[in-house]
Amino acid sequence: MKVKTIRRRYLREAALMLILARLAVRFVPAAHIFSWADRLPRRIDRFANSEVIWVTWAVERISNNSWVSALCLPRALAIHAMLRRRGIASRLCLGVARDGQNLIAHAWVEIGETTVNSDPAFAHFTRLAQFGEIPA
């Protein structure tokens, strides 16, 4: 398959997943979203490293468009869902940090000890919750 075709497939899937994630964040109770995120993938594919790169690229590319402008939680949900579809076990993490007197929140995805979609500036966040344990 051509690289151009692969890119288009990932971008279409990322657009759909981001739209669904934004709708879920807005209309579905958080308990349902996080119980879904806590489930393991049905199958585990341990040799899909290139898939992780494509998935994160597609979600970040689509979410930077003005018509989507997704925040970190829908991005993390979309990446987590796309990775689960491919059999890649990942963790959805939620954390907070202080910004002066305010608390700021952030959501990111981890595979093992590697953070998939977070900026290094977000390294100071304290993890409050994680969903989707990675099997041994």
A few lines on this structure:
With 136 residues, the protein is of the alpha+beta class.
Molecular structure report:
The protein has 136 residues and is α+β, with helices and mostly antiparallel strands. It has one domain (3-131). The protein has helices at residues 3-27, 30-37, 49-63, 72-85, and strands at residues 91-99, 102-111, 114-115, 126-131. Strand 2 and strand 3 form a beta hairpin. The radius of gyration is 15 Å and the shape is globular. It starts with a helix and ends in a 5-residue tail after the last strand.
Please work out how many helical segments DSSP would assign.
4
Give the overall shape. Answer: globular
Q: Mind summarizing the main beta sheet?
A: 4 strands, antiparallel
| Topology order in helix (H) and strand (E) letters | HHHHEEEE
Low-confidence stretches: none
Please tell me the total number of domains: 1
The total count of strands amounts to: 4
Radius of gyration over alpha carbons?
Answer: 15 Å
Question: What's the pLDDT, averaged over the residues?
Answer: 87
Strands of the biggest beta sheet: in what spatial order? 3-2-1-4
Class derived from helix and strand content:
alpha+beta
> Can you give the helix content as a percent range?
40-55%
- The rounded distance between the terminal residues' Cα atoms is 33 Å
β-strand amount: 15-25%
Summarize the helices and strands and which ones pair or pack:
Blueprint: H1 3-27, H2 30-37, H3 49-63, H4 72-85, E1 91-99, E2 102-111, E3 114-115, E4 126-131
Antiparallel strand pairs: 1-2, 1-4, 2-3
Helix pairs in contact: 1-3, 1-4, 3-4
